[in-house]
Amino acid sequence: MDNSICQVYEDEIQSLEEEIKLLAEKYEDSQQESTFFSDEEILMSIKSFQRESEGHESLSDLITQLESLETDLSFLKKFTGIQFTSHFKEIVEKTTNRTVRKHRLSGNCYSLSFQLEFQLLEMQNKENVSAVVTDLGIIMESGEDSDMSKFVSSTEEHGNLLRFFRSLSSYAEWYEHRRCTFLHFK
Question: Which regions form coiled coils (predicted)?
């Protein structure tokens, strides 16, 4: 091969390595930012929001609140890459202090699509409501990636939706980076 062609390829490889390094740093920064809030702080914010929203009765307040929620949803789609395309919910069982709801969600995270089906058991005592995910089933187009299949199986066993969405977001983001890199070399 001609030295000039080799140099062009080496320059391109160097450029891609620098881009990967920058993306890795950017990813680490975003991961650190997302861990600033504990689960308790998030729950307190949700409860505070629910108390505030109970007093809103006028149409203009509801429209303002809807616009704010749409803005928040748009931000979350950009931040996590997760976009839900459909949601189905039905009540399976309801008693005075216990409710079982069946949920079906589908969506995509970057270029990976997913479907979830689970039951949410909600139990209420005097002051608290606790919720437990049961019968979790996940369908993903993971292709031939055995690590992703193992992860999905483990998540189904433990019923940990938060872990699933956090991991899916990270995995799908890097999956997209790899896909774009490989397309670049084709």
Answer: 6-33
* Domain assignment of residue 54, yes or no: no
> Which pTM value belongs to this model?
0.57
Tell me the pLDDT of the chain (186 aa) as tens digits: 577 777 877 888 888 888 888 888 777 766 655 555 556 666 777 777 666 656 545 677 778 888 888 888 888 888 888 888 888 888 888 888 888 999 999 988 888 888 999 998 888 887 888 888 888 888 887 666 677 788 888 888 888 888 888 888 888 888 888 888 888 787
Residue 23 and residue 113 in one domain: no
Q: Which domain holds residue 116?
A: 81-185
Task: Quote the tokens at residue 67.
Answer: 């616009």
Going through 8-128 in order, the beta strands assigned E by DSSP cover 82-94, 98-109, 112-124
Q: What is the DSSP string of 36-102?
A: SS-HHHHHHHHHHHHHHHHT--SHHHHHHHHHHHHHHHHHHHHHH-EEEEEEEEEEEEE-SSEEEEE
Instruction: Give me the residue label for tokens 């002051």.
Output: 127
CB-based burial of residue 140 (10 Å sphere; 0-12 exposed, 13-18 middle, 19+ buried)? buried
Same domain assignment for residues 93 and 179: yes
3-state SS, residue 127? coil
